[in-house]
Design goal:
Structural class: alpha+beta
Shape: globular
Strand content: 25-35%
Helix content: 10-25%
Number of helices: 12
Largest sheet: 8 strands, antiparallel
Distance between the termini: 65 Å
Length: 878
């Protein structure tokens, strides 16, 4: 009878919550349909023709609204009803009109609205020529797209290349395309370098849909002569109401018509550093750099008109920049690409020939950007296994890379002063890779051999980092308390369902949260939800379930919290998408707390390595941020690494970020944590669907805006005898950290942002942040370099530097000694000699490793004055 009563209690009166790790296998990838290849800055119309004119007018005698007049082709094409149509139907010969445009032959869009003939006549087709050789008609060498009648509702769209007008035509794309008799669609092509993408839109414009995939041409047409565009018809339908026709013929070129700003912008488009945008195999620069982007620094005093002329000369578009403290700085300019690195270096050469351009160079990245820390843990978690930026996420540790954790760890790796709680089920203890971070665990090992869900969640939050084994959590160092939500007999035995599963109640969950808050937890992670396995909830009874689950928790958060207030509560969106359609996160229960307790509850959804929102994760307005939750590596049975998925494992990354923020600045309040998590995700710029993806580094940089806070990604420099930090990179608000009584040369900020070292006349001096003030210390022991934004101030950092040397033409063969300046000893030491064999051929780049502390100024010393020297550059702050 006792078993019967317990079963009924569980079945009918207790709201049973299950663990969010249980999800069907989900794989997803973004859909390329409807995503045309985009041309950077392609908004200058070179040809636009609506064929407005008197019916029967030859197109040859007609001038387009934008662009030149049409030249004679084979046969004739006439205007009728403001469209271009065949003038005769007596044969199936080509009838062609062409314009030799001023379009650059490596970057443009071409399109027209095409209406298929009303009569279904064999041989009816039209084509658009591009990359066609000028001066001949038909051209001997050309690329074109043709759309040919194949059925009453279908045309065949082909991308064709002909060489020497051979009828052995090379068809490089062949796709069936829906287009019924007497219907219209806009058909076009985008050319970018050697890539060609055909596409269609509704006639008159609208959502663009790709036709097939982009094709890479095997022959390079960019010779300056393939600058003709044309249209032609082949068919037997004479001009008439039902004949095939084209309208709105358009060629759009790469120039933007952009007004170049008089001073450099101070924004860096983070997306340009995606792996796909990097050139890593250039024979001209032996380091990765951003594809088709040039850094330009104009000479002091150069005018806006000079800057405009320089960037127009290379067909460039300003996409960002970075300012010096005095206001001017580098322009980041995108130039028309050609699929290789030749275009960007040609642009650099052109810019360097101008007297008012001081520097022109590629946007180069060091292999190890500064301002980050990578742990050294178990197999596949070694230091060399870590990518630094979210766009480079890969491997079994992709989830932490995708949150920008390596960059965030350059600011803090956590500490043990503030308690973080995990309220969950099934903890095992001890676990080697957790033990140093776990302060206390309730009822450990009560559910062996069940999967240790609580331990798995905890490991994502706080597996010990940099200990040479296991995995890495968001916090390398932490003070974690683990609270069991399962129900137990008075004798301490776990109560299980008849199916052998833990019994978890709404009351038990609320009590565990109260215990954690009263013990001093500043953050509580709750990876539990209410599943709906048997259909979509919609009745009043369904709503009552949510009310019952929330009632004890609402009471606990309103009445049972300590005088200092309730902790930040991190809850999961839920995994109801594994049972059927995704549900609104309200139906997962705990997300609904966000309406009652705004700025106190963070609701976390899940995304995969492609940034696609997980198909199993619940959705809706309550979801605050997304975090990695597909193929996440955590510690499972026996404390061994395993791969799991579910919103359960997304939430602890957000809880770990809250812990990092508290370790970075203990003065932060619960409301501060909520704001910094949300604003950092938005500032990171990545989304999973419509949900912003958490970005630990951006959240920490926002925390560093407060005067008196440690430094994280701030620009820091010496101005005369003062050390200055830029606290807000949007308003450029600065703070004077300290003033010296002597001249200083440079400053380095240590990892953690609480110590700066200044190279002054008397030697190295160190300052530490104590109670919001920078106080000089006699402790000059060095720690790891790198946590400051020094790249634009000509100093190396993180013991990794690069220098580029550009010999000026005619200088002859020279040896360039790359030296490093030791301000303490007031000496130069040669660390590398470069023998320039071809002084006019380009830029030489050397990577400098292992620079000694206190010797950070790069310079190039040569007996001649024929070399320009460049300085270290890295896109990330520390």
């Amino acid at each position: 009878m006792k078993t019967q009563l317990t079963y009924r209690f569980v079945l009918w009166t207790v709201a049973i919550l299950v663990l969010a790790c249980q999800s069907d296998r989900v794989t997803s990838s973004p859909d390329d349909v409807g995503r045309p290849m985009l041309l950077a800055g392609a908004d200058t119309t070179l040809v636009y023709d609506t064929f407005t004119g008197t019916d029967g007018t030859d197109v040859i005698s007609h001038v387009a609204e934008t662009g030149q007049s049409w030249t004679a082709g084979i046969g004739a094409i006439k205007i009728q009803n403001n469209t271009a149509r065949l003038s005769t139907g007596v044969d199936n010969n080509n009838h062609r009109m062409a314009i030799t445009t001023d379009v650059a032959d490596d970057s443009f869009d071409l399109s027209t609205d095409y209406t298929r003939g009303a009569a279904d006549v064999g041989g009816d087709y039209a084509q658009l020529e591009f990359l066609a050789q000028s001066g001949t008609n038909p051209p001997q060498d050309r690329v074109y797209i043709a759309f040919t009648r194949t059925a009453a509702t279908t045309v065949q769209v082909r991308l064709i290349r002909t060489k020497a007008f051979s009828f052995a035509q090379s068809i490089i794309l062949d796709n069936a395309f829906p287009l019924s008799t007497d219907s219209s669609k806009r058909i076009g092509v985008s050319v970018s370098g050697l890539q060609v993408q055909t596409w269609w839109e509704p006639a008159g414009g609208g959502t663009r849909t790709n036709i097939g995939s982009a094709v890479t041409l095997t022959q390079d047409y960019r010779d300056g002569t393939h600058k003709r565009v044309a249209f032609n018809f082949v068919g037997s339908q004479a001009v008439g109401p039902g004949s095939p026709r084209i309208d709105n013929f358009t060629v759009v070129g790469p120039r933007s018509g952009q007004t170049v700003p008089a001073t450099a912008p101070d924004t860096i488009p983070g997306a340009i550093y995606a792996d796909s945008n990097l050139v890593t195999n250039s024979t001209k620069v032996a380091a990765p750099f951003v594809r088709d982007v040039v850094d330009v620094l104009f000479a002091t005093g150069s005018t806006q008109s000079q800057r405009q002329a320089a960037i127009d000369q290379i067909g460039g578009v300003v996409i960002g920049g970075s300012q010096f403290p005095d206001g001017d700085g580098y322009y980041l300019v995108r130039v028309p690409g050609n699929g290789t690195d030749s275009a960007v270096f040609a642009s650099i050469d052109a810019l360097r020939s101008l007297s008012y351009v001081q520097v022109a160079m590629v946007e180069m990245l060091l292999d190890d950007p500064t301002g980050y820390l990578r742990p050294n843990d178990g197999q596949s978690w070694r230091r060399a296994d870590w990518a630094v930026t979210p766009d480079s996420a890969r491997g079994v540790n992709w989830s932490l890379e995708a949150t920008a954790a390596p960059l965030a760890w350059g600011c803090t790796t956590g500490d043990t002063t503030k308690m973080i709680a995990v309220v969950d089920n099934a903890f095992i203890d001890p676990v080697t890779d957790l033990q140093a971070n776990v302060d206390r665990v309730e009822r450990a090992n009560a559910y062996v051999p069940l999967f240790p869900h609580g331990t798995a969640v905890t490991s994502a939050l706080g597996a010990v980092g940099n200990n040479g084994s296991g995995i890495t959590g968001m916090m390398w160092r932490a003070r974690l308390r683990l609270y069991e939500v399962g129900q137990f007999t008075p004798q301490g035995t776990a109560i299980l369902s008849q199916g052998g599963q833990p019994i978890i109640t709404n009351r038990g969950v609320a009590h565990a949260v109260v215990r954690a808050a009263l013990a001093g937890a500043r953050v509580v992670n709750l990876s539990l939800y209410r599943p709906w396995r048997h259909g979509v909830p919609h009745t009043g009874a369904d709503s009552a379930v949510i009310t019952q689950i929330l009632t004890p928790m609402i009471h606990a958060l309103r009445v049972r919290m300590p005088p200092t207030g309730a902790p930040l509560l991190t809850v999961i969106a839920g995994n109801n998408g594994q049972f059927g359609p995704q549900l609104n996160a309200f139906w997962s229960a705990y997300p609904a707390l966000a309406d009652t307790f705004p700025r106190q509850v963070v609701v976390v959804g899940a995304h995969d390595i492609t940034h696609a929102y997980a198909q199993f994760a619940d959705t809706g307005r309550l979801v605050t941020v997304a975090a990695p939750g597909v193929d996440v590596t955590i510690l499972g049975t026996g404390g061994n690494p395993v791969t799991q998925q579910g919103t359960s494992f997304a939430a602890p990354y957000v809880s770990g970020l809250a812990g990092l923020l508290l370790a970075f600045d203990s003065a932060l309040t619960r409301d501060d944590l909520y704001r910094l998590i949300i604003d950092g995700a938005r500032r990171g710029g990545d989304t999973a669907g419509v949900v912003p993806i958490m970005n630990a580094y951006e959240s920490l940089k926002l925390a560093a805006r407060r005067p008196g806070a440690p430094l994280c990604g701030n620009r820091v420099w010496v101005n005369n005898n003062s050390v200055i930090a830029e606290r807000n990179d949007s308003t450029h608000t600065t703070q004077q950290l300290t003033t010296l009584s002597e001249a200083a040369a440079y400053v380095n900020v240590r990892h953690g942002g609480r110590r700066v070292e200044v190279s002054a006349t008397s030697g190295d001096r160190a300052f530490e942040l104590r109670l919001g003030q920078w106080v000089e210390t006699q402790d000059t022991a060095t720690t790891q370099y790198g946590a400051t934004y020094l790249s634009l101030l000509q100093w190396s950092h993180d013991l990794d530097s690069a220098v580029g040397i550009t010999p000026r033409p005619g200088s002859g063969f020279v040896d360039l000694d790359v030296k490093i300046r030791d301000f303490a000893a007031n000496t130069n030491a040669t660390i590398q000699t470069i023998h320039v064999l071809e002084p006019s051929s380009g830029t030489y780049v050397c990577l400098l490793e292992g620079c000694t502390p206190g010797a950070d100024a790069l310079s190039v010393i040569t007996s001649s004055t024929s070399a320009d020297w460049r300085f270290a550059y890295s896109p990330q702050g520390g």
